[in-house]
Design a protein that fits this description.
Number of domains: 4
Number of strands: 37
CATH superfamily of the largest domain: Peptidase S8/S53 domain
Radius of gyration: 52 Å
CATH architecture of the largest domain: 3-Layer(aba) Sandwich
Largest sheet: 5 strands, antiparallel
CATH topology of the largest domain: Rossmann fold
């Protein structure tokens, strides 16, 4: 390794101009003072005498007020010049070689140890376009040498490992990607036989990995012959959340890296949340108390309760409740017998979808309960979902009847008229057939009645074909009696 003083022609730029300091193969050294600033006399780069515009010096070392050996075997202080700085660097090279003999002949490795362990120094000289943050620069090179840091860098190799996940909340069956990064954070030379490994936790399934890897059923490994100082290497690992995974946290902490020179370095745990898909179904009726002939509207509503994941291949099905007549339904639908089905390709997270089914209660329905229990929803992610039955009570309208005597009193032998009123309270259904039977009290004689009627003994009967919705039917009966006292007329 050739260590050369940069020269004492500073402070101007491009004053490194003499062989061998100008050459790329030479490790050129500038001079610094006790305050760690460049000496005014220290030559600066870049090299222009050979047209290379090469950055120089490569490194700096103390070169002002140096105590040095002098001819005759003594020592003397106060010596300054890059010729004082160069021996510092040559001595450091010798120190490194004595500490690690395997570095002999590895010029680039030695230079790398020295430059990467140096104390960074910056300048406003601006030589060669340097800025105040340029490193290396044409004044100090990589900075001022640090012998202790260089020595430590020889044998201390350290790796660090980091890991990220492409998603933090997932569904069972989802695929996502881990990115693992191994960094050679300490050590100035290559480290060898680097092994990066990751053991999958329960709930995750291996899918694929980048690069050249091995997989033994639980652990994936990548192996690199070397990893340069400060080098960073990344790999990707594709995994799938098991379809059987329960809601909760899956933590991956069994991963790390090691090498021949560096101990195993574990990475920080990385966790993902498993949130199973959520499909809810509910059904409502437009009323829960109906009468014969009334129209019922059932509304079926599904909701995707997941915060971010859509649901796919959705269907809603409903079976026509027994005792009802189909009218219409949300389009489009398919009908198979009494079962109606609606489909939807997907339902975004937190979104809802609803359909309706309209039916009529038969006019002939008696007092009953219409139960709708055969309905369900389905998605590819959740499977079948059901909900509680929906009951509608049916209560038929009753014919309303009233009767009243005209005066409430009549002398013996005088006529007395009774008025009978039948009312159909149904808003749209007629009542039929109608029969009104009036029973006269004993010793009472029929005088007259609304026609048509039939009279047999003490019974008067009226009939009608039907009574329209909201209709009123009135019949009268006039009778007389020679007896005194209260007499009762009954009717059905």
């Amino acid at each position: 390794m050739v260590v050369v003083s940069a020269g004492n022609s500073g402070p101007f730029c491009s004053t490194v101009s003499d062989p061998a300091a100008i050459y790329d193969a030479a490790f050129s050294v500038g001079a610094t003072s006790s305050s760690d600033t460049i000496a005014s006399f220290s030559s600066r780069g870049p090299v222009i005498v050979d047209g290379s515009n090469r950055m120089k010096p490569d490194i700096s070392a103390p070169g002002v007020g140096i105590r040095s050996s002098v001819p005759g075997g003594g020592y003397q202080g106060g010596w300054s010049g890059t010729s004082m700085a160069g021996p510092h660097v040559a001595g450091l090279v010798a120190l490194l070689l004595s500490a690690k003999p395997s570095l002999r002949g590895q010029v680039s490795a030695i230079e790398n140890v020295i430059t990467q362990s140096a104390v960074p120094r910056y300048t406003y000289d601006g030589c060669g376009g340097d800025t105040p943050t340029t490193l290396p620069n044409n004044t100090y090179g990589w900075g001022r040498i640090d012998a202790w840091a260089a020595y430590q860098a020889l044998d201390v190799h350290q790796l660090s490992v980091a890991k990220t996940a492409s998603a933090d909340t997932l569904l069972p069956g989802d695929t996502f990607t881990y990115t693992l990064t191994v960094s050679h954070t300490a050590g100035m030379t290559d480290t060898h036989n680097v092994v990066l490994s990751d053991t999958l936790p329960a709930g995750l399934e291996f899918v694929a990995a980048s690069g050249a890897y091995t997989w033994d059923g639980s652990t994936v490994r990548w192996t690199y012959p070397t990893l340069a100082a400060k080098a960073v290497h990344s790999e990707t690992l594709q995994v799938r959340v098991a379809a059987s995974a329960s809601a909760g946290t899956i933590t991956n902490s069994a991963y790390g890296a090691s090498s021949d020179e560096a101990p195993f370095a574990a990475g920080a745990p990385v966790s993902v949340q498993v949130a199973p898909p959520v499909l809810t179904l509910d059904k409502t009726a437009s009323t829960y108390q109906a009468v014969p002939g009334q129209v019922l509207t059932y509304t079926l509503r599904v909701r995707n309760g997941h915060d971010f994941a859509p649901l796919s291949a959705l269907t809603i099905s409903d079976t026509l409740p027994a005792g009802t007549q189909f009218l219409t339904a949300t389009q489009p639908f398919t009908r198979t017998g009494d079962t109606f089905t609606w489909g939807k390709a997907n339902l975004p997270a937190r979104a809802a979808w609803e359909v309706t089914l309209r039916v009529r209660v038969p006019l002939t329905a008696g007092q009953t309960t219409i139960t709708n229990a055969a309905y369900a929803a389905f998605s590819a992610e959740t499977g079948k979902v059901t909900a509680a039955p929906v009951d509608v009570a049916v209560e038929p309208y009753a014919l309303q009847a009233a009767a009243a005597p005209g005066e409430g009193y009549a002398p013996p032998g005088s006529p007395l008229t009774y008025t009978f009123t039948l009312t159909n309270p149904h808003p749209f259904a007629a009542l039929s057939p109608l029969t009104l039977t009036v029973s006269l009290p004993p010793q009472a004689a029929l005088v007259d009645a609304s026609t048509p009627y039939t009279h047999a003994g003490q019974t008067v009967t009226f009939t009608a074909g039907s009574l329209a919705p909201g209709g009123v039917w009135t019949r009268t009966v006039t009778l007389s009696s020679t007896l005194t006292g209260t007499r009762t007329v009954t009717y059905t």
